Amino acid sequence: YWELNFIPHLNIYRKDLVPAGLDVISYPKLDVKAVILSHVHMDHYGHIGFLDKEIPVVASPITLALLKGIQDMYSRGAGSEVIYFNEKVPEAKNPKILKSTGKSFGRNLISTIKCENNLSNYFWESAKKKGTIEEGSITSLEDTALPFSITPYEIDHSVYGANAYILEGDRTIAYTGDIRRHGKYEKQSNIFIQKARDAEILIIDGDSHQ
């Protein structure tokens, strides 16, 4: 991924995935407070698994639960290890090949609303069956101290749990995710659009309206 420039050359990634001989210390190290995930489509979460485990992931509880289910059923590589990841080490004969140590680490998750205890337990249950896991934390936005506020908005999309967000700090940023103005949550999409009118910066991923 690094050699082919599939991901930016930044010092924000998991140490166990960095190829031998790659001088990541020379890359810019961003002060990433959180990753804000809009929904559970691969083109949105596909490379989160590369990120340092200390960077928390913000998403709706439905999105987090769906990601966990997808990850349990099949793996699409280290980039899709969003909820938890398997620690890797280089093989002795060929350091370019990484193998699992059998130990997993849970990521720090921030749900847009408070999760029930049984949902919290669900995130680490299957990983424990495969080996040992160092559980991550699960908190809600209202219980998390960030240097800016994040307001989630339920929106319509072709998958459950999709959110748009408005961030307020030095600037106000509206992020649409993939949004459409029809379907079951059409009304909620329109509420977000009205709220986003006052934003100084608008980030649009994809939209659909009829």
TrEMBL record:
Gene3D superfamilies: Ribonuclease Z/Hydroxyacylglutathione hydrolase-like
InterPro entries associated with the record: Metallo-B-lactamas, RibonucZ/Hydroxyglut_hydro
Domain Metallo-beta-lactamase: 23-140
Name of this chain's protein: Metallo-beta-lactamase domain-containing protein
Organism encoding this protein: marine sediment metagenome
